[in-house]
Automatic annotation (TrEMBL):
Pfam families given in the database record: Tetraspanin
Subunit structure: Interacts with SLC19A2. Interacts with NTRK1/TRKA.
Protein name: Tetraspanin
GO cellular component: endomembrane system; plasma membrane
Family statement drawn from the similarity comment of this UniProt entry: Belongs to the tetraspanin (TM4SF) family.
Naturally occurring in which organism (per UniProt): Poecilia reticulata
Keywords linked to the UniProt accession: Disulfide bond, Glycoprotein, Membrane, Transmembrane, Transmembrane helix
Transmembrane residue ranges: 24-47, 72-94, 106-128, 216-238
Subcellular location(s) of the protein: Endomembrane system; Membrane
């Protein structure tokens, strides 16, 4: 029968191997995490400074100038920039912690990563419970983009409408007659007849699409949270290995 000392030694060896594997998992994870954060940051800044994307969220009426859903636009930009900045900073910090076997830095990294995981899960739950409001807002946004295209005839806006119409197999607003200009962005009549419900408007199609995608979006956020928690466990195992190595006799 093996002694308790031998069993303890085998457990320590197993934990050390897990710690080494976790180190390289953390390095790879943080590289990917940093790249995704940088992409989010760049995309947010591009939206903010790209003229055509700003025009999509602003409609000038003849009698007054108003900003339709400009708050939505700025909220999306702020989220992308802030989230990207946090991901880049956390990814670089985690990479530094793993590569330099810094126990204190790893513990701090674990705390921030755990908070980010909780936030991801909370956002996923909020996205599911708010799907009706989100669908209605996107329906209103479609209406404003539709009016913007009729007014400015911008090709970027036309491409946006064409994408939405092709994706949802719908075209136009309820109670508004299609103009020849807008018809160019509509899918083929045969496709609309085959795939779309003629009784529904594009706003209703958008709301239905958001409702169908809500579980998928929630799953993505919850899955992301679970992945982050897995990395927290890896960081904790690696930190434990560093602690054992520091206390081992030379």
């Amino acid at each position: 029968m093996k002694s308790s000392t031998e069993n303890s030694f085998q457990i320590d060896v197993l934990l050390d191997r897990c710690g080494v594997a976790c180190k390289y998992m953390l390095i790879v994870f943080n590289i990917i995490f940093t790249v995704l954060g940088f992409a989010s940051l760049v995309f947010g800044l591009w939206l903010n400074f790209q003229g055509n994307s700003r025009d999509v969220f602003n409609v000038n009426d003849d009698d007054k100038k108003r900003s339709i859903d400009s708050n939505v636009f700025h909220t999306v930009v702020y989220i992308l920039v802030i989230l990207g900045s946090v991901m880049v900073a956390l990814g670089i910090f985690g990479e530094h912690s793993a590569c330099n076997d810094n126990k204190i830095a790893l513990l701090v990294y674990c705390v921030f990563l755990f908070l980010l995981a909780v936030a991801a899960i909370a956002i996923g739950a909020l996205a599911y419970t708010s799907k009706d409001t989100v669908g209605r807002k996107f329906g209103e946004l479609y209406s404003d983009v539709y009016k913007l295209y009729e007014k400015n005839k911008d090709e970027t806006v036309a491409a946006t409408l064409k994408f939405v119409h092709g994706l949802l197999q719908c075209c136009g607003l309820a109670g508004v007659q299609l103009t020849e200009l807008v018809k160019k962005t509509c899918p083929k009549a045969d496709d609309v007849t085959k795939h779309a419900n003629p009784a529904r408007t594009c706003q209703q199609s958008i709301e239905s699409f958001i409702d169908q995608c809500a579980p998928l979006v929630t799953g993505v956020f919850v899955g992301t949270g679970a992945l982050l928690i897995t990395q927290v466990v890896c960081a904790a195992l690696f930190s434990s290995k560093i602690h054992r190595d520091s206390e081992a006799p030379q």
